[in-house]
Input
Amino acid sequence: MLNLILFGPPGSGKGTQSEKIIQKYKLVHISTGDLLREEVANQTELGMKAKKIMDSGELVSDRIVIGMIRKKLEEHRAGPGFIFDGFPRTVAQARELRKALTDYDEEISVMISLDVPREELVKRLLNRGKETGRTDDNLETINNRIDVYEKQTIPVAHYYDKMRKYVPVDGMGSIDAIFKRIVKVIDQLK
Ligand code: AP5
Output
């Protein structure tokens, strides 16, 4: 199985590149942001609680997110592999993912991290907010999401770096140029 983590700050292009990776490698896409937004849209109890947190740019609790991930892993355990987008976001989540994959005799193959400077992230997200109306794409929440990423999520990169699984990729340029860089990393794993 090929199990990838697509890592990077808000607006770095994780969702955009995930779509292309899934098409090429036929992986199962697990985006915790998308799963949470689905809960919000369906107005579930979990969704109601998550919405406030997401609109402020803070992280939803590890317990909730890990529960969602375990369910997805169980549903697709016989598949070709996974692409994790927006997860893990804390070291506790990374440890739990490791445990969950070990239960299926699996492990993370690589963490690909998209490097994009802050000013470009803000530009992309403000633009997406205008186009899609996503409620966390306003300046105040965007800045908080990037701050939260720097404080709570960057340690996850160090966690995988220690295991020699962290590969940074330049996330600037055209979508296709970035995709080519990602494909090069994945194809070197084979
Ligand atoms: P989540 O949905 O994961 O948001 P995020 O990490 O902030 O990432 P984004 O979806 O905003 O950006 P992206 O990197 O996918 O970029 P995209 O491809 O869309 O999380 C939302 C919230 O949910 C969190 O704040 C938190 O509250 C909660 N949450 C989620 N997961 C959690 C977890 N594991 N634990 C706890 N809480 C969690 O691109 C952005 C824009 O740029 C698009 O408009 C795109 O068209 C454009 N673009 C893409 N590539 C390029 C390019 N090369 N050039 C120019 N524009 C580009």
